[in-house]
Amino acid sequence: MNLALFDLDHTLIPIDSDYEWGQFLVRIGAVDAEAFAKRNADFYSQYEAGTLDPVEYLEFALGTLAQFPRRQLDEWHRQFMEEVIEPAILPVARDLVKRHQDADDLVAIITATNRFVTEPIAGAFGVRNLIAAEPDVTDTGEITGRLRGIPTSGPGKVVHTNEWLASQGRSLDSFGRSYFYSDSQNDIPLLSAVTHPVATNPNALLKAHAQAQGWPILTLFDD
User: Fold this and answer.
1) Average predicted confidence (pLDDT) for the chain
2) Active-site annotation holds for 136
3) Is 18 in the active site?
């Protein structure tokens, strides 16, 4: 068995699911349009520049979720999947994931975005294993606005991957080949930890790094 890890945003889908979720909340009038859209855009710019404080952003994102009952959030998310996410899941990305699934590889999506936003998206790809930022929830499933553990970004992706594998009695060294597909320089720590890193739809910083390291570059989406 080999291991295949996938980033999500701009890797398997040509959009940022967390940013688009925020824009969706603005469109349906759930949040103050001007204030939220500005803060959302500011955080997204920081992410693109590699300067985002992941804890600060997650506290903002999860704090927004905590304002609403879980039943309402789930209803909105079903609409979000139909209107935003499903049109963004393209056959070329499905086929990439399916090739690893058909080879009986252990497949997981690992993303800095929180589980509430991303779990239905992973399900749409037929991927059961999801490593994501974990929102704290009450006994009844309501989101409190706090983050459980450390963010699943940068070096945190290595930590969470190792913990997930250890929970199954495995490690990265357990696999003949370990793949990680990502678009961002933020994921260089995990890309450097696997045997087969693949810069997928890479931004300029990751593309330059991949070229210097001799890593393969995969383009799934047109600009």
Assistant:
1) 95
2) no
3) no
